[in-house]
Amino acid sequence: MNLAESLGFVPQKTARAVRAINVGKLIPNPANFYHIDSLDELKASILEDGGVRQNLIVEPKGDGTYIIISGHRRCQAVKELLADGADVEADLPCEIEPDHAKAERLLIRANSAARILTPWEEVLQAQRADEIITRQRQEGVISETKRQAMQTLLHKSSGTIGRLCAIYNNLIVDLQQKMKDGKLGISVAYEICQLRPEDQKGLFDGITKFDIEEISLADVRHYKDMNGISNKPADDPRQTTIMDFIDDKPAEEPAEETRPMVEAGREPERPAAVEAEHEPAEEEDATDSEENQVLKEYQTVAESVWQRTYSLWELHDKYVNGNITTENYIAESQHEARTLYYEARTLYQELDHLRVLHEKTKKNKGEGKINEMGSNK
Questions:
Q1: What are phi and psi of 178, to 5 degrees?
Q2: Which of 9, 121, 148, 178 is in Cβ range 3.0-4.6 Å of 144 for a Cys bridge?
Q3: How far is it, in rounded angstroms, from Cα 75 to Cα 59?
Q4: Residue 191: how many other CB atoms lie within 10 Å
Q5: Which domain range does residue 12 map to?
Q6: What is the CA radius of gyration of the chain?
Q7: What is the C-alpha separation between 274 and 157, in angstroms, rounded?
Q8: How far, in Å, are 257, 285, 293, 319, 336 from residue 262 at the CA level?
Q9: What's the mean pLDDT in 166-178?
Q10: What are the residues facing 22 on neighbouring strands?
């Protein structure tokens, strides 16, 4: 009986060789930017289960050591337990992945599917995936389009990926630190990153002066209104990253019969497309034009919320039909639900902003009618 079997581990189907490797030969991946938080619960679980019961995935270095691809937290937990004198096996069950190109993608895929990421980790993950896929497409390792490869790797829409990459490329360092500290979410960061660096710095100085910890969309829009700031021009070269994704044609919807079965009456309705009432003319009030733009932004977010909600039903059906383990069901559902929470919050903020604009539009049009009547007297 090998170590994995003695620990009660049932290996999944894999073409990789599985062997027991001492923790002393397992090296943290230098490309791993994911935060290793408290390990107390994991250590207690390892002790209760009698060892690590899930394979790590590692890449051989050629000198007898191995780079960890998946399993940093498990490895670190065992190292800490051993240092505390706990009776735990120092040899861990590991799958050997000799393909470096595949190993690079696995590092991201394993974390994107199994972890609840912070906003900044999501940004770094998208940027790293962009680098890897761009290089591997040039080397001929990947044949599919960049958009397809990114969506497959990150399990995100092309629009979401584009926003994350735009944040990495455009957000100033001080505001990046806000994201690292958990004080700036993705939606707000994307709103800010469309501003010029000097305007971003002015915003940061302002919120620092007034001791504002967490920045909201309302804070950003108030700052823009007070300073007469508009978003940077569409032809700004710093926007190329996001446009690379948004300009791609969306993937085709799967045929109806290929979708997982959902109980009658439980499938959420797809939001109806929102059409602007009219194309803004040259003489149109600026508020009208902004209202039309926000309507389009609302539709984008609403569609994303629908997709996330549908993904949760898909996971539920997989679990009910026995096509996914309980552990994976919980982990993937948590990831989808967390993302849905942020996107639903953005949807609420967009609708609130839309309400304000609509009221302002009605007021402006009302004042225009009054002035017109006065001029006829």
A1: -60, -40
A2: 148
A3: 14
A4: 23
A5: 3-98
A6: 25
A7: 20
A8: 11, 46, 34, 12, 17
A9: 94
A10: 91
26 has pLDDT over 80: yes
Calculate helix-pair angle for 286-320, 326-376, nearest 10 degrees: 160
Residue 124 domain flag: yes
Question: CA-based diameter of the chain, in Å?
Answer: 100
Give the CA angle between residues 295, 301, 303 to the nearest 5°: 100
Domain-ending residue, one of 75, 98, 121: 98
Token readout for 340 is: 């849905």
Domain tally, the chain:
3
DSSP state of 35: -
C-alpha–C-alpha distance, residues 95 and 112, integer Å:
19
Same domain flag for 359 and 293:
yes
This prediction has a pTM of: 0.57
Token pair for 84: 């505390």
Specify whether 59 is located in the same domain as 154.
no
341 lies in some domain: yes
Residue 142 belongs to a domain: yes
CA distance 372 to 350: 33
**The domain spanning residue 232 has which CATH number?**
1.10.10.2830
**What tokens does 190 get?**
């994307």
Higher-pLDDT residue of 15 and 137 is: 137
For residue 73 the two structure tokens come to 């937290």
